[in-house]
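Subject: for your reference before the review

Hello V.,

The reviewers asked for a structural picture of the protein, and I figured it would be easier to keep everything in one thread rather than splitting it across files. Below is the amino acid sequence we used in the manuscript, unchanged from the supplementary table.
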Amino acid sequence: MVSGSEDASGHAEAAGPGARTPRTVGARRLAALLPDPAQARPAYRHLAHAIGELILDGRLALHVRLPAERELATALGTSRTTVTALYDLLRESGYAHSRQGSGTWTALPAGHAAKGVSRLLRPEDTAIDLARAAAALPGQILADTLTEIAPRAAGHAGTLGYHPYGLPELRAVIADRFTARGLATTPEQILVTSGAQHGLSLALALLARAGDRVMVENPSYPNALEALRRGGLRTVSVPVTEGPTGEGEGDDTDGTDGTDGTDGWDVEIVESTLRRSVPRLGYLIPDFHNPTGRLMPPAARARVLAAAHRSGTWLIVDETLAELALDAPAPAPFAAHGTAEAAGKVVTTGSLSKTHWAGLRIGWLRAPARLVTELAAQRVATDMGGSVVDQLLALALLTRTDDLLPGHLDRLRENRAALTGALRRYTPGWSWRIPSGGLSLWVDLGAPVSSALAERALAHGVRIEGGGYFGTDPGLFENRLRIPFTLPPDTLSEAVQRLARALAEEPGPAASAHRPHWIA
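And here is what came back from the structure prediction:
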């Protein structure tokens, strides 16, 4: 699949004099994703089912032009009549539409709608919360650290307390951690923010304007996608694929080669998207990607960074999960994989939410010093600067990271083992790969029922998001469920049992609404 540009409605631009190259998928590439037409009869219905599943799972992007009938027939080794019937069925089912003289394009059936982020505004309840993947801090560590910082906080009481860039000593510690990870950084390149999402919002407001194109992974972090939508930005997606999964057993990964969970990015597609669409920005999560858990290989990072530099595209790289390496070495910062000139157009965001405590709301961004100055000036217009007390607490916790992080990682490994064990026991029809880091599993349910399951699960006392929340377009990833392993083992086991009971309920109309209508 070759990504290109889209108009304001999200559809690809038509080719023509002076127009950009449209988004298209080649016949051989599509054929490689499809089953052998001879496997089932009638072949056209078998192939239509497969293409519908590819679209719902995000492996075949929306608003992409399909190959000409004759080309696809040749690539599949079947008749043109079969492909004609295939395209007719896709159009009839809503998974494709045609334009006179412009070919056939992928689509979603009517009735799919995005739900936005209103889910985060629900009142707190007693449900087991699997909707949010974030760290919890042991209470004694928090109490001890608050006691430790009390004298320092008192020392700041006589000052105004406004630090638009962040506390100087906190900026210095964050810069030192970047340097230790392999990317030389000065405090002047650091802006302390109210979480990574705040850093993303500041960067989007400064670097882009409504109507600009932004390259994003599909699936991706829902709150980041929502920030792009609210900014009026046009997304051009590149797929991050899960790859084959085990039969409910999972495939242990170590993050060392392309068959173990690191091969989720097709770098040729990313390079092509940057070359043809020339997006203003790109938003990437290369480290234990949310939600798939994939880890981008170093060689791929270097190629993506070089391609972005050639196209003049700014990259916003979310590294909030980078230090949560469970079975693989923690990766070096993304910007360390290219020239200093290329790294000069990379904004890196991070926070304490995943490694320490989500309730602290302290994050940062790393960027060229001149850009940090512009971002700080922009930040003053909204909040003048962050809480001094919170920053002192963050400083104390960051200083102790090398002591605190190993215990946190051990707890995550224990939780992950408990979650996979419960899944094997109570939901044997589901499958997944075990990521080499991060906070969650990207589970394949075997059928596009995740939104309906999420609705039923709430009645069983489990709050969880359907896979569609992570897609760049509504209706995708309906066969997926992100399940974090941030809760204690006993709680995770109970949550999976409740999900299994919800799954066993008779599916209502909502559960079948996402299935292509030709599926029995």
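For the response letter, the relevant points are probably these. The longest strand covers residues 213-218. Confidence is low (pLDDT under 50) at residues 1-21, 112-123, 244-262, 508-520.

Happy to draft the paragraph if you're swamped.

O.
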